[in-house]
Structure formats: structure tokens, C-alpha cells
Amino acid sequence: MSTCLIGIGANLGDRAATIRASFALLAEHPSVETIAVSRLHETAPVGGTAGQPNFLNAAARLATSLAPIALLELLQEIEHRCGRRRGERWSARTLDLDLLLYGDRVVSDVRLEVPHPRMTFRRFVLQPAAEVASDMVHPRMGWTVAQLLDHLDASLLYTALGGGTAEWRTRLADELAASCAARLVRAPSADRSSPTGLSAGSTLESLRAQARVLASASWPDVGQLAVSDFWFDQWPLVADSRDSPELGDAWQELRGDVVVPRLTVLPAAPHVGHDNRPAPPTNVLDLAIERYAQHPALGPVLVVPANDWQLTVEESVAACRAMR
Fold it and tell me: Where in the chain is the domain with CATH 3.40.50.300?
């Protein structure tokens, strides 16, 4: 039997009754054992159509002999039996059942991705999940559910934008500032001249300039979201690409003095310009960035589809709201 974590949400109809009905239907299945269910948490919707009703969210810890896809099919069947009719993405729904974790399995299928790609920064997911599965481990990050929630509670409200082109990051930072009333933290001017956000002559001074901008000692903790159009933790890749141990050592020394992002947003390859046409990677760092982004020390990362600008903005705005 595998231990699984299910996220549950509803914002139409009798939400509590629907969620209780879904618990009962899960418990009826001969291949599913319910270990624990959380309390109900009321949350405002993030993403999707404006003006939706509030959600009730919950989580359930299960043991099952079903394979991941078979469990997904069971969850979708229960959604349908409880009145769910799939329509617009992130629209109001009678019931939403998400497979968040399936033991230590990593599943990447056209129908299913486990761990759930957005669970690491969604407070409405992590709060109920921590009640029933605080010890379950995210197999990509190596963090427990409790550690993920602690990160949201302890970190400052700061999102870093990395990878891609300087134009892409600046444009997305502007969108987030407008949609989320965020404070913009611009890259030092010397670092804005190349697609990587690092000028050809980047030196230790460029690194130190970014560290000064992000100094935790002078960071205003006013409860306002801050968004930077650069990513300080990209520097180890720069150091490796230039075979510069000195640069890597300096980053390591300064990293403890800068603000840690609550979330980092990166574009998936291929990278694109304003016309949304795919383009080849802009620099030798691009292919390494996505692999590096899995490092546990970096915290939650959202990888957005860079060839769809509208979806990139929607995903990024929703993520910034969900992590509050």
C-alpha cells in the first residue's frame, strides 16, 4: 500500500456537504484506506474568473494499492458523481480533488504530474495538508509538508524572476507589480544589458551590487509583495560556466546576507520574445537552470510556459497570491 496525499476544494453549492460526500466515496473503495482528514479551511479564490465564491479546502491522507493513474481516475469519478463538470481552467467548481503526493513517486504523464507542480507554494493546499501529512516528503525537493508551510510563514513576501531574457523578466515583473500591487526590485543597471541579466564583463562587483540591493538588513518588511527582475541564486551557474571558483565562493559568502525568495519563477525552454514565437536558448545557462532549480536549498520554484505569455502571467499572478 502506498501513502498518498489528496487536496480537496469546493466553492459551489453546499461545499461542506460535498466534501464530506467525497470523503465517504473514497472510504467506500476497497483499495483505499482513509488514514486522516483535515479540518475545513475557508480561503479566497486565487486565479480564474473574478468574483468567484470562497473555497472550502481540506486534505486527506490515504493508503492505497491503486497505481497513480488508477487513483487519478477514481478521484475524477468521485468529482463527477459529486456534480463536477469541467469547464474553464480555474473556474468555480463543485469539487476539486488533486493528487498531491504518491509516496516517494515522481510521475510525469500527459494526464498526471506528481508531486503536484504548484503545491509547494500554495497556502490553501499546505495548511490543511500539514494537519494530516506534516511528515510526508516532497520527493523532488526533499522538504516535508511541514517545512513547506514553515517556509511560507517564515520567509518575506518576495518573488524572484530568473532565467530567460532581461526583457522577459522585466515585462513579467511589471505585470506582477500592476496585478499584485508589488514593489519592484530592479537589477543593477550594469546587469541589464544582456539576455541573461549579466553583462559580458560581469565581475565580483556585479555580484556584490545585487547583494546590496537584496540586503536583508535593509529590506522593508511592510507586508507588501516585492518582485525582483533578477535571481541572485543564478550566480553559481555563472561561476561554473566561467570556471570561476572565486565568483562561486563570493556568492556563497554573501548569500546569507540577502533576502531568500518565498518563490522563484523561471520560464521553461524554449524562451520567447514579445511575439510569442519559440526561440533557441539564449545562453549556455538556460538548460542548466531548470536542473539547478530542483536543488532543495532554493525553495519553491514555479516553471511557467514561456511560449504562452497570457498563461505565464496568469500562473505567476496566481502563485504570488496563493503564497501569501
Answer: 155-322
Separation of alpha carbons 311 and 204, rounded Å: 36
Catalytic residue among 85, 86, 89, 96: 96
Q: Got the DSSP string for 194-210?
A: STTSS-TT--HHHHHHH
Active site includes 96?
yes
Terminal C-alpha separation, the chain: 35
Q: With contact defined as beta carbons under 8 Å apart, do 28 and 74 qualify?
A: no
Task: Specify the domain boundaries for CATH 3.30.70.560 within the chain.
Answer: 2-152
**Of 61, 84, 169, 262, which is the active-site residue?**
84
> What cell was used for 196?
541573461
Q: Are 266 and 290 in contact (CB under 8 A)?
A: yes
Class (C level, CATH) for 2-152: alpha beta
Told to judge if 84 belongs to the known catalytic residues of this protein, a careful annotator would answer yes
For the stretch 133-183, pLDDT in tens is 999 999 999 999 999 999 999 999 999 999 888 899 999 999 999 999 999
What's the chain's Rg over C-alpha atoms? Answer: 21
- With respect to CATH, is domain 155-322 assigned 3.40.50.300? yes
Task: Measure the CA–CA gap between 214 and 56, rounded to whole angstroms.
Answer: 37
To the query of whether residue 275 is one of the catalytic residues in this protein, the response is: no
Catalytic residue among 39, 85, 89, 93: 93
- Is there a catalytic annotation at residue 98? yes
Residue in this structure with the C-alpha cell 522593508, named with its chain if needed: 220
* % of the chain beyond a pLDDT of 70: 88
Q: Indicate which residue of 15, 61, 98, 118 is catalytic.
A: 98
